[in-house]
Amino acid sequence: MDSVRKNKLAIFLFIFPAAILFITVIIIPIFASVYYSFFDYGVAKKIFVGLGNYKELFTYTNLKFTKSVINALILAGLSVFIQLPISLYLALTLAKGIKGERFFLGVFFLPVLLSTVVVGQLWKKIYFPTYGILNVFLNSIGLENLTKNWLGDPKVVLISVFIPLLWQYVGYHMLLMYAGIKTIPTELREAAQIDGATERQVSWYVTIPMLKPIIRVSLIFAVTGSLKAFDLIYVLTGGGPLRASQVPATLMVEQAFSSYRFGFGSSIAVSIIFLCFFFALLIKAAIKTEEM
Fold first, then answer.
1. What integer pLDDT is reported at residue 4 of this predicted model?
2. CA 195/CA 186 separation, integer angstroms
3. What is the largest distance, in Å, between two alpha-carbon atoms of the chain?
4. Mapped to the 3 state alphabet, what secondary structure does 6-51 carry?
5. Predicted confidence band of residue 45 (pLDDT cuts 50, 70, 90)
6. Alpha-carbon gap, residue 265 to 211, rounded angstroms
7. DSSP state, residue 174
8. pTM, entire model
9. What is the SS3 assignment for 53?
10. 61, 87, 94, 202: least CB-packed within 10 angstroms?
11. Nearby residues of 87 by Cβ (< 8 Å), 6 or more positions away
């Protein structure tokens, strides 16, 4: 194994296929999107417009790009302050070695393995106004006044979209944190308990501080995942009603493939990349500052 690690040709042969795939699927499309974003490009001839598409993002109010970014940030906030605490609580609970630990790990992680289209179709049936299980349940317990058209009401559609996102990905973050907890030496927790710390104090003062690297990763995944969310929202609402659940990715697809404005759609794609990088760097800087 040591000889393989020192062999530059072997290292190159191992890395080369993955590098080609990464460049083809990730790098080239990013540069292509940047290139097309400088053009007014649709079914007609390409016309160079410079930064015109980016200027239009914030001036053409009918597109409501700013509103789509706000919706994505709301989803990111809900993920950070609701989804991640639930994941952390589940991870802390399961890491104690409760009965059926492996079973519950599998149950909570199962939604992650499901196709997003399947999850979207499932929750569309749950939310259906007439025969959906949610409204049927509310009617059965005498709470008819709480029934709604969950995906058709602009006031509640965003939270209705978030709940399936929470259900699908809470197990993903839980597993990351659970794995991190298992790497913490048990001697540290035992020493704190010997000193008289309660289970809650051990979690708060020992376990969670040592989970900072994992929590930072989960924060980055949760925020960037919300900013580039597309498939589940597209299946559930398509960005409606009245753009109440519109996010940058659904707006991008609408402009590029429905309005045939590929250049303008590319400028939205580049903006999504920029937002993801910006918030990822912001989170890394914030956590690093706290650690220092």
1. 61
2. 14
3. 75
4. HCHHHHHHHHHHHHHHHHHHHHHHHHHHHHHCCEECCCCCCEECCC
5. confident
6. 39
7. H
8. 0.90
9. helix
10. 61
11. 170, 171, 172, 173, 174, 176, 177, 218
